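Hello,

I think I submitted the magnesium ion job twice by accident. Can you confirm which output corresponds to this input? Input:
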Amino acid sequence: MARKCAIAKLALAVFGGLATTFQAQMPCFQLSGRPLPLATSKVPQPPGKRDLPLATRKVTLSGGTACFERPPAKLPARSLPGWLPWLARGHQHVSIWKKLWPFVVSVSGVVLSVEATLRGRRDAERAQQESQEGRTQAAADRMMVPFPPQTKKAEVVERDITKTIEERILGWHEHATIIAGRFGAGKSVAVEEALRDMQGVYVHQVRGNDWEEKLYKRLGLDGPDMLEEVHRRVGDKLKRPPILLLDIPRTTKQGMETISSFAKELSSDRKLAHVIVCASSAAMAISFDAGGSARQKDIWVGDLTEKEAKELLTLRGHQNDWKQFVDACGFNALDLVDACDISVEAKKAEMEQKARKEVLRFKDQCKIAGDTGKEILNKLLENRQAGEGAEELCTDASPKDVAMWIREKGYHAVIWHTVKREYQFASELHANAAIEILKSTSQSTP
Ligand SMILES: Nc1ncnc2c1ncn2[C@@H]1O[C@H](COP(=O)(O)OP(=O)(O)OP(=O)(O)O)[C@@H](O)[C@H]1O
Ligand SMILES: [Mg+2]
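Support: Only one job matched these inputs. Its output is below.
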């Protein structure tokens, strides 16, 4: 409504102004050459107009002209809109425009040519980025950014294993490094902590057989030749080869086979980059073979120490009841973190159930060369008193095949310790489950 009023007012201002301007030039009709006396008469009105005010129906006869006159006094007095006189001086504007036109033309020319130059530069930059050279440099630049671990510094418990990894990185001159350990032992946190703020680091998750293509794609590269050039550039800048961390999450089942040759080529043969493989379980680490143990460095990430576990639980608000957690759930970092999220009791029950299931299935189903699972479990129980694991030859199956079975089936009752080179129970709970299960089967067997 207010808007309509405003439009109406504007229209009134415009037309009212025009009427005021032209009020002296009333519409006249030539009747004859003789002046007519001024008269006021009723002009016949078309139906519907009869009730118009009298003043609007006056006719002035002057000479031969009959004029319909609108009395000026009755018109609303309106001032001229500001732009009307300006418009009236049109001829002046034309001459100003004539003078300004060459200037306007030349300014537009400059603007257009600047725009064209910028567009050309943008196109050239894009072409450079899309070119091999541009992409290689972009990947090298990306690797030069100081590495930011996923966990904040304040949330990380300092561990000796981190220092061991750090020493290996700083003193590296050849061969791949394999970091192995049980699920959730803290491998990824430890290695990332050792790499914190370091330049020349790239982390890639290995998920599936196409992990290598994905690595090139993520870096914007076409293949191994371009990656080699990236490593060379970063190496030249840092005066040491860059680090490529291949993290294998616990869910990964495929792709490990090709990691070995990839790592051997880069770290042993060409020494262009330090490949660190962070394998989520010993079952995966064992399937890694970068040319034999002499051509790879194995680092084992074990359970937390009591001091480390207390610190981790303190960071999560359990400084007073931390002992309760480790007594029930042990010293695996992830188990303790999970227990904080649910409850000690719930976590303990879940772990006991899982351990029992894994031992049972391993014993009954792992039959690679004879009764493989059962043989390994028996040997482990036999050596338990002495605090030892089970050596490779306690069964006819090779550790690699056992590892493969564990990985495929997902029953992690035992682990292969890559540094001690022996089978071990996956945890104390697995050992207790094995004692119970094997005792009951030996009792039930006649
Ligand atoms: N040093 C540490 N300080 C604080 N928290 C830790 C530390 N190490 C491990 N954790 C906790 O334990 C969890 C598991 O650790 P991490 O992911 O490093 O284990 P992992 O061995 O790599 O596991 P996976 O076998 O699944 O790869 C982390 O998410 C973190 O919450
Ligand atoms: Mg991990």
